[in-house]
Amino acid sequence: MQKRVNLIWLRNDLRLLDNPALYVGSEQECIVLFTGEGIDLDHLGAASRVFLHHALKAFSEQLFQRFQARLLVRQGALDQVLDQLLPQCKIDKIFWNRSYEPRMIARDLELEERLKKRGIQPGICRGSVLHEPWEIKNKSSLPFRVFTPYYRHVQGLAGPLAPLPMPAQIQSPLFEAVDYGQVEDLRLLPERPRWDLPMMEHWDPSEAGAHALLKNFFKSGVEAYPERRDIPAESGTSRLAPYLHFGQITPRSIWETCNKHPSAGSEAFLRQIIWREFAIYSLFHQPNMDTKPILPKFEKFPWLDDPQHLKAWQRGLTGYPIV
Fold first, then answer.
1. Sign of CA dihedral 255, 261, 262, 268
2. What burial class does residue 18 get, using C-beta atoms within 10 Å of its C-beta: 0-12 exposed, 13-18 middle, 19+ buried?
3. Do 123 and 25 meet the contact criterion of CB atoms below 8 Å apart?
4. Most buried residue, 15, 27, 262, 303, by CB count within 10 Å?
5. pTM for the whole thing?
6. CB 203, CB 51: distance < 8 Å
7. Can you tell me the distance from the alpha carbon of 230 to that of 238, in angstroms, rounded to the nearest whole number?
8. How far is CA 184 from each of CA 57, 70, 187, 208, rounded to the nearest angstrom?
9. What pLDDT, in 10s, does the model give residues 122-165?
C-alpha cells in the first residue's frame, strides 16, 4: 500500500514561522518541495539569484536541523516532479501560498485543474500580505484607487491575522529511489568573476537573519527612520526588502512588531509596509497596470525618443553618480 502524504510547494516563502502552507500541510506526513518553476527562476536578475541560492541553503539546513526533514529541490516543472513521486507515494493534497501577480494567478488556476484531473486536491493558502486584496473595499464596495484613503481604511481595521507559529512537527518520508537534489543543481551563482562574494559579506539571507535585522532596526534605527530613510548616504532603512520578497519574514510579523513598539518611527515604517500592500492590491485589481497607464489619458503621453539618452541611462552615465 502506498504511503499517503501531502506535498508542500514552496515559492517565495522560505520560512518556518507564519507559513500557512507549511503549517497546514504538515498536519500529516509531507514532502517539502522547491522548484525553479515556482518563482519563474529564469526571469530573476543575477543579484536575486545569488540571494535566493543562499536563502535556500539556509532554509534547507534549518528544515533539517529542526525537524530532520529534507528539502526536495528541482529545476523543472511541478508536473514533472509529480510524475517522479507518484509511483513512490499517494499525494492527497498539494499546499502552496498564494501569489497575486496576474500571470501567477492564471498559472495557478490552470494548475488547479490539472491537479484535480490527477485526483490531487489543491490547497492554496493566504500569501505574504496583511489582507487579501478582495477583502478591502471603499464605501462604494469598489477597490481603492488612491493610497491615502486605502491607508486610512487599513489603519482603521482590527488588524491582519496574527502570524502563525512554527509547525509542531514536519514528518518527511525518505525515499531511497528519489534523489532529493541540491540547491547547487539550480545553478544560481555566477561562475566568473565571483562578484557575488563581496555582496554576500553584507547579508545573512536566513529566516533568523531577517528577524535579527527587524529586531536591531527597532532597537537602534526606527526612531530616525522618518528622516533618514530617504538619504542614500546613510543606513536609515530596515534592509528587509529582499527578505520580504523571498519570504523569510512576512508583513504580518512586521505589523505585530510595530504594534508592540508604537512610536512615530514605527508608524512611518508601517506606512511603507502598507505601501507594499497597496502595490500588490492595485495590481490584483488592475492587472494591466504593469503594461498600460492606470489613467487612459497617459496612453498618448509624449515620451522623448532619444536612443543616446537611453543608452547613457542603461550604463549609469546620466551625469548623476547615484544613477
1. negative
2. buried
3. yes
4. 15
5. 0.92
6. yes
7. 12
8. 9, 15, 5, 22
9. 999 999 999 999 999 999 999 999 999 999 999 999 889 999 99
